[in-house]
Each structure stands twice: as structure tokens, then as C-alpha cells.
Design brief:
alpha/beta; 7-stranded parallel β-sheet; 8 helices
Length: 266
């Protein structure tokens, strides 16, 4: 089933938060656009980059707009969703990809840090999903919300003590919102994607890259496009809701502890 069939519309409308910068959100927006969606690119401070993405999509024959909102400000997030609906006349897909993360030793993490992570990564996600979902329940075709979490909420990295609680909240929120909206309109679905290591920064040296790859069952770093493909699948499949899908190369089921080579497989 295609996206147009799922949403009973030749050109479904998708809003992807955090899609201006060259990260996972942008890859998701580009993939949905390539599948026929009209796309709202969201930026906070990266408005110039967001404008470039919109121009690229328009040159390729697509329909796109740029919207701006600081995810920690409820009113801005609600206005952003309303603007997308007013502009396109509908909203079929919301992908909550906007997030912040900066390593910091726990001795330096303040309560204000924790609150800021929750405001942007969790509360901002909730406000966007609530605004989008309450509109989607009024549409006969419903809609799909996909929240981006993180595989490592089950095995957190060091120095991210403020980040992981905010991402862990996404998982419970996804299941809760699936119930809230699905009861109101069974064609509204809420799912999540939990990416593994993708898009390593240019500052990651070869030794560190090899060490990261060795801890992945599939022995490589993932791509933003593979995460985007998973998002597309969850938007397209009309019989999946309340699911958190790891896209992590097997990292959540595999630990490179050296024991595998010593197992007796005879």
C-alpha cells in the first residue's frame, strides 16, 4: 500500500520537526517528499538551512514550506501545527524528530539541564503530537504520528544522564497517544522509531568508528535513509500502532563481550 492509498489522498501532508539541519529529520522529510508528500520543514535556529531544503524540494517539483518553532515553547509548537493545517488544508503525517543532545558528566548536570531536555525532547514532542492528533481524529482518513526515540534508552551511554530520561519518556508517550487517538478515530496511529548509531560526526576518528561498528551485530554504522525508510513503513502500514521499532543493526540484542567465539555450537 502506498502513502496516497493509506491516507486516501494523492498528496498527503507531512510535518517533520527537526528537518532543517542535515540530520535524520531531513532524510525523513526528503524520503516522504520523494513518495509524493507535501512537506513542512521545521527549523528553530537552522532557518537558512531549512529554506535551502524547501527550495531543493520545490526545484524537484514538490510542494514544501518552512515553519519555525522553538520546541520548548508550547504556543509556538501549537501555532506551527495550526499553520501547516491552514496552509495545506490537512495533516496526514507528523514525525517528531527534533531533539537536543550534548555529552556532559553527571557531576555537571543540573536540574535545569534535565528540565530543558524534557521540555524540548519530550514535552515539545507531546504538544506537537497532541495538536496534530486532535486534528487527525477529525479527518475520515485519520493520520500517522511517528516519534523518534533512541535505541540506547535500554543501554544508555555514559555522560548523557539528562538526555536519556527525556528519550525514555517518548516510548511511554507513544503507547499512550496510540490509545488516546486510536479510541477517537481508529485510523489514527502512533508509533516510534528507535535509531541506533547513524550519521557519526566528522570529529569521530577511525579508531572510535571501528569500536562502534564492532558493537553492532551487522558490523556497520546505519544511515539516516534507513531510519527514514522505517518511518515510511510505519506511516504506510495501516495495521500497526503503539509500536517502538528499533532500527539499530541488532545493537539492542547483541553485546560484543567476546563470549560468542567461545560458545560450543556443536
Amino acid at each position: 500500500m502506498s502513502l496516497s492509498e493509506t491516507f486516501s489522498c494523492d498528496s498527503p501532508v507531512a510535518l517533520v520537526t527537526g528537518s532543517a539541519a542535515p540530520r535524520v529529520g531531513r532524510a525523513i522529510a526528503l524520503r516522504l517528499a520523494s513518495r509524493g508528500c507535501r512537506v513542512a520543514i521545521h527549523a528553530n535556529t537552522s532557518t537558512e538551512m531549512g529554506g535551502d531544503v524547501v527550495e531543493q524540494l520545490r526545484r524537484d517539483g514538490g510542494e514544501a514550506i518552512l515553519v519555525r518553532a522553538a520546541m520548548e515553547h508550547d504556543g509556538e509548537v501549537e501555532s506551527m501545527v495550526a499553520h501547516v493545517i491552514d496552509h495545506f488544508g490537512r495533516l496526514d503525517i507528523l514525525v517528531n524528530s527534533a531533539a537536543i543532545w550534548t555529552p556532559k558528566p553527571i557531576e555537571q548536570v543540573t536540574a535545569a539541564d534535565v528540565r530543558r531536555y524534557f521540555e524540548i525532547n519530550a514535552t515539545g514532542c507531546f504538544v506537537a503530537a497532541r495538536a496534530a492528533g486532535l486534528h487527525m481524529v477529525s479527518q475520515p482518513s485519520g493520520g500517522a504520528i511517528v516519534n523518534i526515540s533512541d535505541w540506547a534508552t535500554v543501554r544508555p551511554y555514559l555522560d548523557h544522564a539528562a538526555y536519556f530520561p527525556s528519550k525514555g519518556a517518548i516510548e511511554a508517550m507513544t503507547r499512550s497517544l496510540a490509545v488516546e487517538f486510536g479510541v477517537r478515530n481508529p485510523r489514527v496511529r502512533v508509533n516510534g522509531v528507535m535509531p541506533g548509531p547513524v550519521l557519526l560526526g566528522d570529529d569521530v576518528d577511525d579508531e572510535t568508528r571501528r569500536a562502534i561498528q564492532s558493537g553492532v551485530l551487522l558490523r556497520r554504522i546505519g544511515t539516516a535513509e534507513e531510519v527514514a525508510h522505517a518511518v515510511e513503513f510505519l506511516c504506510e502500514n495501516a495495521f500497526i500502532t503503539g509500536v517502538l521499532l528499533p532500527v539499530d543493526g541488532g545493537k539492542s540484542v547483541y553485546a560484543n563481550d567476546g563470549l560468542q567465539s567461545g560458545l560450543n555450537t556443536g
